[in-house]
Amino acid sequence: MTKEELELRQGIIEACRSMNALGVNQGTSGNISARHGDVMLITPSGVPYDQLKPADIAEMTLTGAYGDWSGPLQPSSEWRFHLDIMRSRPEVGSVVHTHSTYATVLAICGKEIPAIHYMVAASGGPTIRVAPYETYGTPALSTQALAALKDRSCCLLRNHGVIATGANVKRALWLAVEVETLARQYYLSLSIGGAQVLSDAEIAHVIEKFKSYGPRPKPAGKAARGRQPAGGKTAARQRAGSRGR
């Protein structure tokens, strides 16, 4: 096992523990997978997160015989939708599945999350859809999940829970937490008369703005021009200060 793979396996375990600490999952009901080259690493079935070791994470092929796995423990019972998402969506580096309370309440009621807040744009569209109910771990559930995830990075599963995807484990877990936050906001808004929903056009605008959001390196040359001389004031500020004395 390479150092990179070991770190990825440990990262999956840490994310599992974070799910419960953050309150978006209970017990071993959730599961997490991550892409590693031509294989998918995924949590084993039914093992308490505080007992997991890197070697316990199951490995499944993304290019070989469908469903083949290796490891000391069998993969999560939800391995099908994890595997199908990764096989059909090469941009996805991780899948996080939770049973977070408010999102699952909405899923139980068959309510998708509309654009009650601009952060719905993190899903990739103006709504977070609800996939129709199918028994857990079945090919039918995987099919419904893939349909609900079309042009989306997350979805709800009817009477079940949440799927969130991302380029890496941290990003997928962040989105799972964001889905639960949006679900809680929507649930509470329903209790006081309902939400004012943003337009599809506004969410499309926000999605475009998100593309340039976050820390980015400065263009070459700008750092030098913005640098201040020793002493804490620029020459211009020094001149302005002398005029005001």
Structural class call reads alpha+beta
Pattern of helices and strands: HEEEEHEHEHEEHHHH
Q: Average the pLDDT over all residues and give the rounded result.
A: 90
- Uncertain segments: 223-245
How would you write the strand order of the largest sheet? 4-3-2-1-5-8-7-6
How does this model look, in words?
- The longest helix is centred in the C-terminal third of the chain and has 22 residues, at 169-190.
- The termini are far apart.
- A hairpin with a 3-residue loop joins strand 7 and strand 8.
- The chain is α+β, with helices and mostly antiparallel strands and 245 residues long.
- Helix 1 (3-21) packs parallel to helix 5.
- The model is unreliable at 223-245 (pLDDT under 50).
- It has helices at residues 3-21, 79-88, 101-108, 139-148, 169-190, 200-210, 222-226, 235-243; strands at residues 31-36, 39-42, 58-61, 69-70, 94-98, 130-131, 154-157, 161-166.
Main attributes of the structure:
about 240 residues; eight-stranded mixed sheet; alpha+beta; 8 strands; disordered C terminus
Note the topology.
Blueprint (H helix, E strand, L loop, with lengths): L2 H19 L9 E6 L2 E4 L15 E4 L7 E2 L8 H10 L5 E5 L2 H8 L21 E2 L7 H10 L5 E4 L3 E6 L2 H22 L9 H11 L11 H5 L8 H9 L2
Parallel strand pairs: 6-7
Antiparallel strand pairs: 1-2, 1-5, 2-3, 3-4, 5-8, 7-8
In short:
The chain is α+β, with helices and mostly antiparallel strands and 245 residues long. The chain has helices at residues 3-21, 79-88, 101-108, 139-148, 169-190, 200-210, 222-226, 235-243; strands at 31-36, 39-42, 58-61, 69-70, 94-98, 130-131, 154-157, 161-166. Helix 2 packs across helix 4 and helix 3 (101-108) crosses helix 5 (169-190).
